[in-house]
Amino acid sequence: LLENSTLDILFVCVPNYLAPEVTIAGLEKGLHVFCEKPPGRTVDEVKNVIKVEKKFPHLKLKYGFNHRYHGSVIKAKEIVDTKQFGDIINFRGVYGKSNIVPFESGQWRSMKQFSGGGILLDQGVHMLDMFRHFSGDFTEVKSFVSNNYWNHNVEDNVYAIMRDKQGRVAVLHSSATQWQHSFRLEITFESGFIELSGILSSSKSYGQEMLLIVPKQEGSVVGSLTGTTTQYLEDTSWSDEINEFVELIIEDKPVEKGNSNDALKVMILIEQIYNADDSWNE
Q1: Which residues pair with 46 in a beta bridge?
Q2: pLDDT in tens, 46-76
Q3: 3-state class of 135 per DSSP?
């Protein structure tokens, strides 16, 4: 494929262990590269890609953190940026599915040598990217990591709690024992909260994508009794993401969402979560 001289862009949609190698090969062939998540298996693999990227500053490298382009997430980011409800106090996120298909069934994700990790690296990476998208980096990380149910050599449940320099706390449960698939993100502010639930996907298994906006009710001892719910009926995230990438190439603009720094920072956070549980690394 890379010997085809008519190519302009390479889309990297391969197992995790191949993604850094293929991304580097594309850059070295003079191609703009869009690499699906995760960017690799380890922080060092992503750093190797960045070393090559710096040799080709005219090329665009973008990573597929697709959730940033969903309607509910875009609206949530607007609420965060405008400080409609003041500063963030905390995040709570659940992202789960019902299994990790074993390698014997042709699924490389259950083998650490190919995947680099389990449900956290495969799916939780999206929730961590959104935490960073809304608030920036975290400086303290605690976790419990386990594979007690499926017994593969990758994790099937991760419970992580993170805190940033401003004292904002994010709690994540990334699960492969969620018998009914679930996506839920709550953000609590000084004077209100929002809840993102469901995410439009090709599998249609995470339910209807909705955003609940609830203002704090002053003087109430039972909490707010009012809220506004918006349903998102159409998923344009993929086309919006790709159209933005093409526009960046045509107009020679820097990649601001899903760039290699975003990829590196989220991989650093994932490694911190794995390393924070001593029993997982024995």
Answers
A1: none
A2: 999 999 999 999 999 999 999 999 999 999 9
A3: helix
